[in-house]
Design a protein that fits this description.
With about 190 residues, the chain is α/β, with parallel strands linked by helices. The chain has one domain: Rossmann fold (3-Layer(aba) Sandwich). The protein starts with a helix and ends with a strand. About 30% of the residues are buried.
């Protein structure tokens, strides 16, 4: 999130950030967003009384309040560790992107770096992808490869992957903002 907001502030991405929404009131990103002059909203998920769809309805109402509509908006997930409802995905079809610390479709879900190490992968990396109703299964926009070293730990591999995440996520947002991405089935075509 911070990398994206800083790239926008430096005019490298031609969009205006409308709001940062967190499901945790003590999320580090909230202070960063405020420091960069972006509105923040908190929809605490802990103890939320209702279904996942009702929670997401509340998120959608906040997005719309801030002008992030299904027609003109982009929702970037970053550290939002909740599965969003099929209703949310359908409403914002091809307008929600996420970053994942693996070369999808390999190692979806949690603990991707550990999965890569346990599997004995020679390379890992990260992927920015559109969100669909599956777990890390949407069309991939951009990926970065990170070599797995023989002495890597989960922590050392995670650090190198995170560096690439900070590079490619703003790049993917920029491609989207400049209308350079076309989706054809499961593939994305960068113009």
């Amino acid at each position: 999130m911070e990398s994206i907001l800083k790239a926008i502030k430096k005019k490298k991405i031609p969009i205006n950030p409308a709001v940062v929404i967190s499901n945790k009131k003590d999320a580090k990103g909230l202070k960063i967003a405020q420091k960069l002059g972006v509105h923040i909203e908190i929809v605490d998920s802990k103890g939320f009384k209702g279904t996942r769809a009702q929670y997401d309805k509340k998120i959608i109402s906040i997005l719309i309040k801030h002008g992030v509509t299904p027609k003109n908006g982009l929702v970037c997930l970053a550290g939002f560790m909740r599965i969003i409802s099929p209703e949310f995905v359908k409403k914002y079809k091809n307008k929600i992107i996420n970053i994942h610390p693996a070369l999808l479709p390999a190692f979806p879900g949690l603990n991707s770096q550990k999965q890569a190490l346990d599997y004995g992968a020679k390379v890992s990396g990260c992927s920015v992808h559109f969100v669909d109703s599956g777990m890390d299964t949407g069309p991939v926009i951009i990926q970065a490869v990170v070599k797995v070293n023989e002495k890597d730990t989960e922590e050392s591999l995670s650090k190198r992957i995170l560096k690439e995440e900070h590079r490619i996520y703003p790049e993917a947002v920029n491609l989207f903002a400049r209308k350079k991405i076309k989706i054809s089935g499961r593939r994305t075509i960068i113009n």
